[in-house]
Specification:
- The structure is a single chain.
- This protein is mainly beta.
- The protein contains five helices and 23 strands.
- It folds into two domains: 23-146, Acid Proteases (Cathepsin D, subunit A, domain 1), CATH 2.40.70; 151-287, Cathepsin D, subunit A, domain 1, CATH 2.40.70.
- It has helices spanning 2-18, 63-66, 199-204, 207-210, 266-269, and strands spanning 23-27, 29-30, 36-42, 46-53, 59-62, 76-83, 86-100, 103-113, 122-125, 133-137, 142-146, 157-158, 161-164, 167-176, 179-180, 183-187, 195-196, 215-220, 226-239, 242-251, 263-264, 272-277, 282-287.
- A six-stranded antiparallel beta sheet has the order 1-11-10-22-23-12, with no helix packed on it. Strands 3-4-9-5-8-7 form a six-stranded mixed β-barrel. A six-stranded mixed beta barrel has the order 14-16-21-17-20-19.
- It starts with a helix and ends in an 11-residue tail after the last strand.
């Protein structure tokens, strides 16, 4: 009888322990430029603030921050690396150890770049959350990492998304001539604004003719290439079954093709707490405390 009770008790305890969905917490800071900064320790010596970048799968450190660091040594140079508006050479450091939260990774390459998000020392990509469910919780300023789908998904809205070449995409509906146009957007936490429209979309729907230009912005990519964009206002934009009014958007007026993808930036992303598993094309959203914030001015 005692053996039976012990066996039953052990079985219950085992289910409780091994049936848990282990959760790991990583703090972050949302900057006024809508960038998510994660504190990262490199080689047990250097502490840096890296911007979570949903359009990347590796770590970069900007040149200015690299010069102040003690633990990184350059081991190689990559030539003619493609950036947003051109090409550049990129230095690389091999076999680094990085730690954020309680997670530690070894043999990690680090690339030296020229620019990153404001207030950051570089970028960290989604590769470090591979095979996990990642929650970006703007209400608590924390990343939560789960081994399996959390039960709270029931309270979130499932979005139409896909993951390709280390990049997360989502379907949304900009309204052109008062009609919704189903459009795919790249989720880009490195872009501070709300929407960046591709050259093809701007040309097909004649944005220069249909929308008033309210200004211009200077934008630069990681390699330091500077380009000018037009600024306008999109009257209606539908995302996650919610309609946003008067959304700022940028696009280019150039004979040279610059912007190949539609981009949804941090100004819209922060308005939702997100749970994602890119490899499974899973993305869920729920309104955050920033949902009704005023739009960011580029």
């Amino acid at each position: 009888m005692k053996k039976t009770i012990f066996t039953l008790l052990f079985t219950i305890i085992s289910i409780t322990i091994f049936g848990q969905n282990i959760v790991k917490e990583i703090p972050f800071r949302l900057t006024k430029y809508n960038n998510i900064l994660v504190p990262v320790i490199i080689n047990q010596k250097d502490t840096v603030q890296l911007m979570l970048h949903t359009g990347s799968d590796y770590i970069t450190i900007i040149d200015d921050s690299y010069k102040k660091m003690k633990s990184i040594s350059i081991s190689d140079t990559l030539n003619n690396v493609t950036s947003w508006a051109g090409y550049s050479d990129m230095k690389m450091s091999k076999n680094n150890v990085i730690k954020f939260g309680n997670e530690e990774f070894s043999k990690i390459p680090i690339f030296i770049d020229k620019q990153s998000g404001h207030e950051s020392d570089g970028k960290i990509g989604l590769k470090f959350f591979e095979g996990k469910y990642l929650e970006i919780n703007f209400d608590e300023n924390k990343l939560f990492v789960y081994d399996k789908a959390p039960t709270k998904l029931k309270k979130y809205t499932k979005l139409n998304s896909r993951y390709s070449q280390e990049t997360l995409y989502i379907k949304a509906f900009p309204f052109i001539d008062k009609k919704p146009v189903e459009t795919e957007f790249m989720i880009h936490t490195g872009f501070s604004g709300a929407l960046m429209i591709s050259d093809d979309f701007a040309k097909e729907y004649k944005l220069l003719e249909k929308f008033e230009i309210i200004g211009e912005s200077k934008l630069s990519d990681a390699a330091g290439n500077v380009i000018l964009s037009k600024k306008s206002i999109l009257p209606d934009f539908e995302l996650a079954n919610q309609t946003f009014k008067n959304v700022p958007m940028s696009f280019f007026d150039s004979t040279i093709k610059i912007q190949h993808k539609n981009i949804m930036g941090g100004d819209l992303i922060k308005r939702f707490n997100l749970i994602l598993n890119p490899e499974k094309d899973i993305l869920y959203a729920k309104k955050s405390k920033y949902y009704k914030d005023e739009y960011f001015k580029l």
